[in-house]
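Anyone? Bumping this.
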Amino acid sequence: MVVLHIAGLGPAGAIVALRAAERGWDVTAWDPRVRTEGRLPRWPATYGALMAEVPEWGQRFFSPAYVPRTVTHRERPLAYSYAMLNKDSLRREVEVSTAKIRRGTVPSATGSPHRVVIDCTGAPTDTGVFWQVAVGYVLPRHLFSDANLATFMDWQQPTPSPPSFLYIQPTDEGILCEETVLATRTSPRQLIDELTQRLEARLDAEAPEWRKVLREQFQRGEFHREVVVIPMGTRKAGASPMDACPPGQRYYFGAAAGLINPATGYSVGAALNQVDQLLDRIAEDHASQEGTHQPRKARLSRRNAHRVARRANAELARALRRIGAELISQASHTTLRDFFDAFFQLGAQRQLTYLTGHDGLAVAATMWALRGFTGFNHPFLQPIWKRPGHMIRVAAGK
Ligand SMILES: Cc1cc2nc3c(=O)[nH]c(=O)nc-3n(C[C@H](O)[C@H](O)[C@H](O)COP(=O)(O)OP(=O)(O)OC[C@H]3O[C@@H](n4cnc5c(N)ncnc54)[C@H](O)[C@@H]3O)c2cc1C
């Protein structure tokens, strides 16, 4: 049986713990933020996901799916759906599973030479980080006149640099309205006040009663402000894309493995999507190491070649998305709005390849298809022609 230790109990660690326990593995998961053993640490954020990325078994953890609005200069309807994670239902299943939840960090190895450690300790914030930064309030539904509120991105209203858009999602507590900078190199601390002011100015126009309601919420202790700071485009040193790390190494998963997509800031859908592949690979590696299953040489080299190819393709996806994030971080509001107007005219499958998954060739195909709408001279693409050396360094993780 695989003896598995998981470092970190954010969504990724919890998802791994659940699926590994369901396989009958001996699972112990560690996090210094655990307050009561057997109970997961708090997850204060609200998590959404594109449902195309969520496997069938994971859909039970989500609210009913819906198609949110997307607005550039005009409405650009999406052809895929979105849903919010029902954190309580996922957390409950993990807590009643056979996985042991412990406070602290994974103890150093003793006794079990074949134990497996998966690092799910979150994204590093060092060299090459892009930030997604947002400020949101949760407000009662009755404040808004519009019936179809859920909005993935609304770029209509011009903003100064760094440009921001409006994200709106219905949650169990009310309507979450968030002013969001998609990708920036600016330190998040410098942006929080500015984004708060932008959001409040929008709400003054859209829901004039909001200040009074917020004051009442505050007095009742029900005030909910969400500050989003997501490090994107990074991964732990030594972590290669999760479905292709060399056998025998410590495994990485979730944000630690670079699963946060710099086009969205999301990783929860990807973690649900990729967890079983990771566990299959660990089972394979474990069987080889214990000598219970020695694949024939030819099969082994085929397997390794397959892993190398997947790794190269995932690395390409990462490099291209880092370039995409850099271009977003340098663009003005008008340029970004124009760019997204082109993006949302692509076919659904092309859009999804960019927003989810780790297929570098498909990401490249999406970027190539985009030039059909923007041409090569679009201001969004200018930084590539003006500073090609810089873009190569960005792609490499700098
Ligand atoms: C406000 C907000 C809103 C967001 N919204 C979305 C969204 O809608 N959809 C989405 O997909 N993503 C969203 N994100 C991004 C989100 O942070 C990540 O997708 C998700 O949290 C990554 O999960 P993770 O488990 O990989 O890492 P984390 O959530 O960062 O969890 C890492 C865990 O590791 C623990 N840890 C650290 N060091 C150690 C150690 N040495 N040993 C043991 N444990 C350790 C930490 O205490 C932490 O609990 C949002 C983020 C924020 C802040």
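Late reply, but here is one note on the structure posted above: The first strand starts at residue 3 and ends at 7.
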